[in-house]
Amino acid sequence: MSVPTSAEWLELTPDEFFERRDACSVCYMPYGYPEAHGVYNPLGVDFYISTAVVRRAASHGGIIAPPFAWHIDEEPAFNWGIDSCGMGEQVVAAIPCDLFLHNVLYHIRAMDARGFRAAALITGHCVPGLDEDVRLLIDYYRRRTGTPMQIVWEVAYDGPLAPEKLPGHDTHAGTVETSIAWALHPELAHPERLGKPARRAFEGGGNEAFDAFCAPKGFPEAEKWTVPSVEYGRYCTERAGDKLAELARRLLASYDDTRPRPAAPDFNRTAELWAGFVRITSRYWRSTMTVGQYDRHESHPAFPGWDVFGVEDAAGPRRNG
Questions:
Q1: 50-54: average pLDDT
Q2: Coil, strand or helix at 122
Q3: What is the C-alpha separation between 25 and 116, in angstroms, rounded?
Q4: CA distance 84 to 105
Q5: What is the pLDDT of residue 67?
Q6: Which of 72, 119, 213, 320 has the smallest number of CB atoms closer than 10 Å to its CB?
Q7: Reduced to 3 states, what is the DSSP secondary structure of residue 187?
Q8: 35: left (phi over 0), alpha (psi -120 to 50) or beta
Q9: CA 215 to CA 198: how far, in whole Å?
């Protein structure tokens, strides 16, 4: 029996799906959406990056779930593109914070119900505080269901998946994001627009460090930034993807197969889980900060812990902690 070459859930036959899942039981879920990343990049940078990284990782094994190209940006409390970047109009495919988290819950549940031992949720876009919120949701799901499935949420080019650091590497629409976008879709790249103003400018508001299309002002100045390149973009994608594959191997090694695996919750039970999660945690969601909190470098109160609300771990002590 040969493992099918395609890693895309959408492209596999049923037999190929089970063969590939059983050979390397990890599911990769790419998140991203359309957002302005300077006048020199296409709007899909965040989505292109996450999908490229998970495809590289899945070349070592595993299955790529159907992607999710909607994300958080345009909120009543903080319209990020306008309030932080000074744009007069939005170009994002935005949904509310609670709807995004609600979708993530059902994505996790689907991977659990399909028998995966590990799930890696990889995003190319992340508003401040969302990391903590998603990881809180993951912890809640594992506690309430008792699933042994290992689950992580990471940014595609940051944290454990970050490439070698270069000047300007971690700034929105900076060297890493731009280099990867140009490497993946050279037909959509506009290097001739570097350092040029937007053809349609907006007045007022925004972050002093960024222009109206959410790129660092003056990018790329030779003394401050590393000029984007296709070569560096390929390096970043391969480096992050290989790091993700190694992370997946560690997740699979941490899977506790000494316990019977409980059935994944059905849709009715998942709806109950969501209602409980909202009731307990919504006041602590850090991704729903206001403009005032952001300007003052404040956020919501820290989550006090599950014990305060009587949420026990259904699986009991875990082998992997």
A1: 97
A2: strand
A3: 5
A4: 28
A5: 96
A6: 320
A7: helix
A8: beta
A9: 11
